[in-house]
Design a protein that fits this description.
With 125 residues, the chain is mainly alpha-helical. The protein has 8 helices and no strands. Helix content is 60%, strand content 0%. α3 runs parallel beside α6 and α4 crosses α5. It starts with a helix and ends with a helix.
Length: 125
């Protein structure tokens, strides 16, 4: 069964079967990236002294969209990222590059199988 076919079934089907298909590593990786960017957006907003309401109004989104974005439930578009960078006075690289090793708080990400994908993308420069 392909992943596309697997997504057609509901949770009850998978409970009866006793297993869920494993998500592709690239999907897991992009979700991790979304969470990383989400944390950076929230940190930058707070450090800039902006409320979600202020940031939303400044970049043309709703407060709900900002909230979903900061929780990692919504991906950023490039234009949104640029507007957030301007409003928070941060370079775009702040939102997408991993922090310096001195700033890193150990979360388990360093052991994640998608970590090697992150390193490969960083080495493309």
């Amino acid at each position: 069964m392909s992943i596309v076919e697997a997504t057609k079934y509901d949770d009850a089907f998978w409970e009866r079967l006793g297993a869920r298909p494993r998500r592709p590593p690239l999907i897991e990786f992009t979700e991790e990236v979304d969470l990383f960017v989400a944390r950076r957006v929230k940190t930058a907003r707070v450090h800039a002294g902006l409320r979600q309401k202020d940031l939303a109004a400044a970049i043309g989104l709703t407060v709900t969209q900002i909230s979903r974005l900061e929780r990692g439930h919504r991906s950023l578009t490039v234009p949104e990222l640029l507007r957030i960078a301007v409003q928070t006075r941060r370079p775009v690289s702040y939102f997408i590059e991993p922090p310096d090793p001195q700033e890193v708080v150990r979360t388990g990400w360093e052991k994640h199988p998608a970590r090697s994908l992150w390193d490969q993308l960083r080495d493309l420069d």
